[in-house]
Specification:
Length: 58
């Protein structure tokens, strides 16, 4: 899902938006760290997808 939303962000021209960059960086860092904290990863990926869609997370 993270990679798919990264593509969406590029297609929408939002890939360089600071909230999108921060969201992707945080989610990717969490997902590629062992052991993966699934609750944290879910929250971070959700935050990233909200940033890509231009939502504030509420």
């Amino acid at each position: 899902m993270l990679s798919a939303y990264e593509v969406v962000a590029r297609q929408q021209g939002r890939a360089s938006d600071p909230p999108v960059i921060a969201g992707y960086t945080a989610a990717a860092s969490c997902l590629y760290r062992e052991p993966v904290d699934l609750d944290e990863a879910e929250a971070l990926v959700s935050g990233f997808t909200h940033a890509v869609r231009g939502q504030n997370g509420s």
